[in-house]
Amino acid sequence: MRVVKIGGRAQSNPLLPMILRDTWHGAPAELCVVHGGGDDMSAMQRALGREPVFVGGRRVTSERDLELLRMVLSGVVNKRLVSALLCVGLPAVGISGEDGGLIGAETIDKPTLGFAGTPVQINVELLRLLLNAGYLPVVSPVAFDVKNRNGGALNVNGDDAAAAIASALGAEELVFIADVEGVRGAGGEVFSNLSLESARDLVTNGVAEGGMAAKIESAEAALSNGVQAVRICDIDGVTDNERGTLLTLSQSIAL
Fold this sequence. Notes:
The protein is an alpha/beta fold.
């Protein structure tokens, strides 16, 4: 089983649908896609006169941003990606973290991040139901708030959602599709592999920051919960296992 998380910019690559089609055909019912959509969300916020704010690579989400989040991620971005996959013959089904209680989350730090959440439960039976029926789940990381008795959504970082889903599915590999070839060192070199400890050092030293720091944090969660390996790569890394940076619990640094 492989879980692939696709960032917003990678979704605009015209080769993406064919790459995912080849991956699916190589191992039917062994793939789950999680998407982001940060650029679309930021553009919509700015159109409404709201300036996006990030802390540690995670979006600060106000209560009034939640409906916008549902519209952009679970509506526009999810359905646009599903449509593109259907056009190349993939049996894609779009689903949000709110549907069927797929992703249950709790707030991380409400005073700092607002309605941003961290996953605490995954309805893995729903994913397996889709996979066993021959469908490719395409997941929007808008989660439901497990602590809100009146219902409500939380903005879960797509990397965090993918890590939680990969762990719940017992995935052999979690792939983060980024805008760069992999994790870079201080001199700009791309590491072919990193131990988790070495990756943490890059974050501590400020070499990996922002979105990359968030990816490394999500990778740690996945590896600590049974996922065998996490790879951070560009879009070509979906079909080329030699591309990108492979993160494992214990491994030597290599360039």
